[in-house]
Amino acid sequence: MYMITTTINGIQHQLDVDPKMPLLWVIRDIIGLRGTKYGCGVAQCGACVVHLNGEAVRSCVTNVSRVAGQKVTTIEGLSNNNDHPLQIAWDKENVPQCGYCQSGQIMSAAVLLRENANPGDEDINAAMSGNICRCGTYLRIRKAIHLAAELQRNETSGL
Prior knowledge:
Helices cover 37% and strands 16% of the residues. By secondary structure, the protein is of the alpha+beta class. Strands 2-1-5-3-4 form a five-stranded mixed sheet, sandwiched between helices. β3 (49-52) and β4 (55-58) form a beta hairpin. The longest helix is centred in the C-terminal third of the chain and has 20 residues, at 138-157. The termini are far apart.
């Protein structure tokens, strides 16, 4: 065990944990944030996606030692009032069915929209291909990402 300092959703945490502990378990079991989900444990499904310094990472295979001195954002930290364009679009398009994969889907989509304000279907398919939805809501996910891109563009243009 050794002390790791990291910032999660803007709050600095001093963690006395095994440096090889997956970030997912620190987020869920030590910090107590339950939005990030365990899906597969081998970085294949995307349910555990969080942002590490703004980049999407699979928290189930990211050792907590990697986040020392870094900034982590979970689904709870994406917006203050669940008003991120993706969260609004997800609701308007009724994307979730069981909802289990949705936080990872939204966190992956947030990186896509930061890098590409107007993604086409091919861009969305490529960016989201590593996120699995067992319920098959892929068409609604794509539609919501298009809507979120529009909402985001309107926000920045002042509409």
